[in-house]
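Newbie here. two chains, one complex. Structure please?
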Amino acid sequence: MRELTASIDSPATPGHNRHELVIEIGKIPVRVRTANLAFLQMLENRYAGFVGAGRSAAYEFEVDLEPLDEARVEDDLSVLRRSGRWSLERGDFRAEWDPASNRGSIRQSANPYSIDSVLRIVHTLELAREGSFLVHAASAVRNGRAFLFAGVSGAGKTTISRLAPKDAVLLTDEVSYVRRHEDGYCAFGTPFAGELAKSGENINAPIAALYLLAKGPENRIEPVGPAEASRALLESILFFARDPELVKSVFQAACEFICRVPVYRLTFVPDAGVWEMIA
Amino acid sequence: MTKKCYVARSSEIAARKLGREMMIMSGRDSTLYTLNDVATVIWEAADGSTSLDEIVESKICPQFEVQPCMALQDAETLVEGLASHGILLISNEPILPPVLLRQEAR
């Protein structure tokens, strides 16, 4: 395990011993600092494979732990831009950051789920600005190309991940990371796991196809028209902010993706034979 | 509607034609709309300076082989529905670009 670094003289916390860790997902490094070493070690275990060693980070968060407020625990998620700062609130956390400096703070109890949610939201906002997105989809790399399998809960994301052959490298069974580049789109591995409870591999590959999952009596692949594909993709994209301009960006990103990446409906029975159709 | 009616596309939405379908998303509440063929023609012609009866006469009637009077009634109902969702702007006067710009600045 990599040794955690302690930045004793952190200007943000004079006089306090803060420990830090860089979590790099999709090549976007996020530095978190906290005074609680045990919490940081928990994060290092949870994000194993995604802990970067770089000194620079795109985002920096001071994490302060506090007891869970039982009265607010059921509060819904709110992601708003207030007075130029992003404010993220849910029953179990409060976070904010300044988009000019990309520095901010997170207040939560000592659990891994709250900061995991904050990270997902931060990434959705960052990606929305560049025509990229997170999507409820399993993804895997085979023969140097990435394949996405999108669907709602129960559609078969974890099932198709479990059925993946040995030559397929799993990027995630739950949340796929899609970044646009000059020639198309790349899928990146994520630590955002579903029922498999296992992080994906921290690699990336150009996306060859998006499959919309459906369970059925036989294995079948059918092309999907662009309008239907965009509706399905938009239903699966993770985006939480009430921000009209970013909502429009996400919509355009989904449409652009549909125009560049082949989309199919993949009906499958739960056996490994389905992967013979994916290569 | 008895007066001239002008329609313009709202700047608070994002739109994209995929295949034959016009997809529109509201930036305000993330609602996704799909327009049918007739609505798409009106949407594409809604430049703020062409009146709805002109759009019906020059675009809808020739393409869909409908009577102007009936088509205009249907079009009025349609644009009122789209306006209620914030997709289109309706006015009895031409909707000039500064109005759209002011809306964008909000």
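Moderator note: Chain A has two domains: 5-128, 133-277. Chain A has a mean pLDDT of 91. Thread marked as resolved.
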